[in-house]
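G., before I forget:
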Amino acid sequence: MITALTGGTGGAKFLQGLQEVASPGDLTAIVNTGDDLRWWGLHVSPDLDSVTYALAGMLSRDRGWGIEADTFQCLDLMRRLGAPSWFQLGDRDLATHLYRTELLTQGKSLAEATEQIARRLGVGACILPMTNDRVETRVLTTAGELSFQEYFVRERYQVPVQAVRFDRAAQASPAPGVVESILAARTILIAPSNPVTSIGPILAVPGVREALQNTRAPVVAVTPIIAGAAVSGPAAALMQANGLPVSIEGVARAYADFLDTLIVDECDTAYAANVERLGIRTRCAQILMTSTADKSSLASAVLQAADELRAVSASA
Amino acid sequence: MITALTGGTGGAKFLQGLQEVASPGDLTAIVNTGDDLRWWGLHVSPDLDSVTYALAGMLSRDRGWGIEADTFQCLDLMRRLGAPSWFQLGDRDLATHLYRTELLTQGKSLAEATEQIARRLGVGACILPMTNDRVETRVLTTAGELSFQEYFVRERYQVPVQAVRFDRAAQASPAPGVVESILAARTILIAPSNPVTSIGPILAVPGVREALQNTRAPVVAVTPIIAGAAVSGPAAALMQANGLPVSIEGVARAYADFLDTLIVDECDTAYAANVERLGIRTRCAQILMTSTADKSSLASAVLQAADELRAVSASA
């Protein structure tokens, strides 16, 4: 059993690779919901959707979010009606949000809604929201405090960040199965997602960090930082705001209390010693995933690193 | 000032004709909301939408409902998710329901939401829901009591009808402007809509029938029944269930307490005496509207009948 903590974009691609090399039934994804928002009256869970669409083979390759070949007819009329339109929902994508919102209104939990949507779309893996509670990532910027999507999509992460906080995290509980799947897993993986606003909210839910520290499974992370820059998105600015160097060392520090091995890109081997100094092993792989083969080979490299850790632990 | 009471399909076409021959700014439509439903968590007002789309030049000509050339991508994924799909919402149409639902959630009234949507879509006429309250048309059938859309769309009006009632009508108030526009109008028109479930709910709102009885304006109705059959939809079965003959006489009886003139089709002139016996004048016109010219000429005939009534009244 493999349990992976993940955000949307990079994490979704990583999970596609894992699904190729491992049995989907053995895979549990614990997904960030700190980016969730109410949009047009609907409950939108961007990272849950990206992961679900990725594992259902529906994720748009061009955009990296939403559904492949989706149309935007509804958005077009919404604009004409004068509704806010900076966050874009495709017509097919809308069905997921309408359906989820209905299930939540009927009293189902976010985890139950997520499970039902994933099953209906043919996903074999188990997709868990980090919590059924509302935890909101808030980004304090020079332009005021913004929700994550306001910062990321509306402002295109061009406003300087001063701090990040996870509103109501202290009162949240992990969704059923989150802690259990960490404690029972054979392998724990941290996807190449933003450590601050993708993995950070998951770690902020009380009990998750402790489970990662206490699990007997090896914990392997894939860095989203290559050669001192983020593969995509605002990870660099957010790491800086959180006092982390924008480097593989910064990623390792974010996870230092539970991480066993960090997978780094070939071009960063010269800096591996900065990570190993923290008591964390490094292994090299090609992190950038452009083809299906890239995704599978990264997934294989990560699982191999976990096997190595188990072998070391068995011989110790 | 012209005030027209109307349902969706036939009424929407009739209003398009009126808008051609009268100034849109002089036109007020009082629209049935007894068919409104909650669908996919959204507040859907089928008749308000048909009238709005018709007056905005957006109504689908083929379907007679929804938006011209709309797509159904969202519906398609809704089906795959296992959501109910017998009531079909197009992708552009969805924007109207999302936007209306948001306005209602923010505390706006249905009338305010309707006005805002109509204005944004470029409608010059005033479109009023019959009430801001929830009045629901319930159709008692041999298969149990159904909402109007369950009877009309899901069952395709193939189940025998025993009775019709308007749930919560007694507690409803006319929307602001409804009674006022009837009392202040120069001409009152009743569109060629189903007298039982399109005009009936409007008349069931306390105060509306009284205003029609008390207004000094001539009241002219267009029959939706031609040669003993409905032009479209379930009007015949519903009139029978309400004890009304399926004929121009049945239409006249439904409005007998306030109607001055009934516009009947040329083919029904032989039965005009049955209407005139009720103290209601008849005038002949071509009721079936297939072209834009048909709509305009019916509208002209109706306005001319109103002019005649005013002339009679002035000379009396």
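The longest helix of chain B spans residues 292-315. Chain B has 13 helices and 14 strands.

More on Monday.
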